[in-house]
Design a protein that fits this description.
This protein has 187 residues and is mainly beta. It has a single domain (47-183), classed as Sandwich (Jelly Rolls), CATH 2.60.120. Helices cover 9% and strands 47% of the residues.
């Protein structure tokens, strides 16, 4: 789609960096309940809220569902070597994971893939998945959920003490945001 012959958006990848360029006069954010016209906004480097998840593990929340009409939620996670997730799925959100640094192993359905910087994983809703930092160094991964519902799990934890949402409380938070735990980490 174009406006006055210009693309509404373009994506360029240069030296392991992802750049998204938006035409600020033509940005429309679609939601699962309709459309919302928006002016757009920029989160500068170092901006956004930081969620401390565990020692050395954090998420810099860049785009929150409430700010995007629940269209998308995006954050950059810093994950020390050995960090892993449960085998889980998102009932209502697709997920994209883009590796910025480190070595990340993904299990999506029955497939296992190891990727370094520039690796991009597309995880459709309702597909069980997990990931682990299998490298020797701390990794950084950019995560995006669309619609934003699954990302609400991270947004809800803002302002809480690191690791304070565990056990039944964390499981209830996951349920509220459309997560389902399938099993323990599969790695």
């Amino acid at each position: 789609m174009t406006r006055a012959g210009r693309p509404l958006w373009s994506v360029a990848s240069h030296t392991r960096r992802l750049a998204l360029h938006l035409d600020p006069k033509a940005v429309t954010v679609a939601t699962n309940t309709g459309r919302m016209d928006a002016k757009g906004f920029v989160i500068p480097s170092g901006g956004g809220s930081v969620l401390s998840m565990a020692p050395g593990r954090s998420a810099a929340l860049k785009l929150l569902g409430r700010d995007t009409g629940d269209s998308i939620m995006l954050f950059e996670e810093t994950a020390p070597a050995g960090t892993e997730t449960t085998f889980h799925l998102h009932r209502d959100s697709d997920e994209v994971a883009y590796v910025l640094s480190g070595e990340i192993t993904f299990k999506i359905g029955d497939e296992v893939t190891v990727g370094g910087p520039g690796t991009c994983a597309c995880i459709p809703r309702r597909v069980p998945h997990a990931w682990k930092n299998t490298g020797a160094e701390t990794g950084r991964v950019l995560f995006l959920y669309t619609p934003a519902r699954a990302g609400g799990f991270f947004e809800e934890q803002l302002g809480r003490r690191a690791g304070s949402a565990n056990g039944p409380e964390a499981n209830e938070m996951r349920r509220r945001h459309g997560w389902e735990i399938i099993g323990p980490p599969p790695f």
